[in-house]
Amino acid sequence: MKLAVFGSPIRHSLSPDIHTAFAEQFGLAVQYTRIEATAEQFETRFAAFEKAGGIGANITLPLKEYAFTYADSRSSIASQTGAVNTLVKQGQDWFGTNTDGVGLVADLQSLETDLAGARVLLLGAGGAARGVIPALTNAGVQYLHVANRTEQRANQLVQHARKHATSSTIEFAFSRIEDIPNMGFQVIVNATSSGLQGQRLPIPSAVFANTPFCYDMVYGAQPTLFLQAALASHCQVADGLGMLVGQAAESFRLWTGKTPETGSVLTRLRNQHK
Ligand code: ATR
Predict the structure, then answer these.
(1) How is domain 2-98+242-272 classified at the architecture level of CATH?
(2) Which of 192, 194, 197, when mutated, tests ligand 1's pocket best, judged by the most ligand atoms within 8 Å of its CB?
């Protein structure tokens, strides 16, 4: 089975390691490669991959919106998020979906964070934040507050989320990050790219003091400044490596029909990247 991940830069992608480990669980012969492609290069390189027998692909930065338009058909989650991270060959067509939110929710659940009825604070209003809102609402979140550096983008994202919400009981709100009200959030999810730039978010400290669980979608050998601030307030924390494995598991299930076990793969990655 020929699979690949497309993006730029792609050299450091962990996806081949993860999918090779999943395939081993089922004794499946899977060849999963990294393919460097910008938006200009995508169509040609993807066509070559398909010609060589490719039947499934992951799509990462900066191609997720491009892959959305490239897909012949799309899941409702892809339509809500405007982004595709997984392409599945169906007959002659490519079906596009987005497994990022499922990966986040699966990881939060494996960390025993109960989302049903929860008050969640989502930091950021870019593609990463937009990509996980449908899964958070489907998981039964009761109140979702979107806070962003640029308030107008948070407002736009909330308007969009309201329009597409599958639950009629969920409440949405938005603000600038420095104006986040102390609402007794159970979970804070950082979907900004501030961790990649090593920049601090101006979150009021009272918000941390009342939040038991803080999650950063960014992962790395060191905790981000956001996670360091959460730790200083005695919150439980996790980085986004589990989300990466979780979204991969959902993609793998769509390609193969098999649901891999993720815990051992995550442990192995953590040990490798310490
Ligand atoms: P992505 O696809 O990773 O979400 P994006 O669409 O560029 O990328 O969005 C990046 C997000 O991180 C935005 O919410 C951005 O805030 P703005 O909308 O105000 O630009 C946020 N972000 C990036 N760097 C940040 C920083 N240093 N402090 C606060 N927010 C930051």
Answers:
(1) 3-Layer(aba) Sandwich (3.40)
(2) 192
